[in-house]
Amino acid sequence: MKKNIQNKLKQIELEKGVEILYAVESGSRAWGFASPDSDYDIRFIYKQDLNYYLSLWEQTDVIEFMTEDDLDGSGWDLRKTVKLLAKSNAPLLEWIYSPVVYYENEAFMNQMRALAKDCFSPVACLYHYLGTTKNFMDVCEQEEVKLKSYFYALRTALAGKWIIENNTFPPVAFMELLPIAPQNIQEKVKQLIQIKANQDEKYLHPKEELITTFLQETVDFNKENAAGLRSGKKMSEELDGVFRELFID
Known about the structure:
This protein is of the alpha+beta class. About 55% of the residues lie in helices and about 15% in strands. It folds into two domains: about 1-120, 2-Layer Sandwich (Beta Polymerase, domain 2); about 120-225. It has twelve helices and seven strands. The longest helix is centred in the middle third of the chain and has 20 residues, at about 145-165.
């Protein structure tokens, strides 16, 4: 499948007249709790030619595609990406630290990862994860729950807890986050991962009170500790430099 994805990305470059600088897996396959029928969530950063950036007029800064073999692609233009990095955008940071990489311009990504550490805003990222967890809480309280909902809620709840406890951006891989949960939660989650690995996305699982109680406790903990977190550094000049370097021969 990796080769199919790389071929699709080359096709996008030719069709759209862009240069892809970085492409990764996002979603459940990057997080480590995919179902057999999960899509491939391909995320990428691309560069246009110089005339695009010199234009006076607003133009699209996103490329999206969906294929019959479950490739769900979404890419962001370089300028959009750099601006989002300045804001410590959590989804972008997850791309940057994804464990599944399809392609990267190494020099560019070394700069991006270095700047991501300085731009990282614990408070901004915590509120992102807190909001996502809360969006899943009602679903997780139902008598039957899609395991996908449990894992989305658990991942973002633990990501928020990680930020509070470590003051760094959390690991993208779920199993690297799990050790900060209590032992009984870890054991239950590992059981659910095995079930999810053998069920399709439509499978409904009986409500797990242990999980929902832990989620609510973690949401409360994250909310209580949010106010004391710092913001990221302002890196405007450095980010401008990374952007401009890509147009210097």
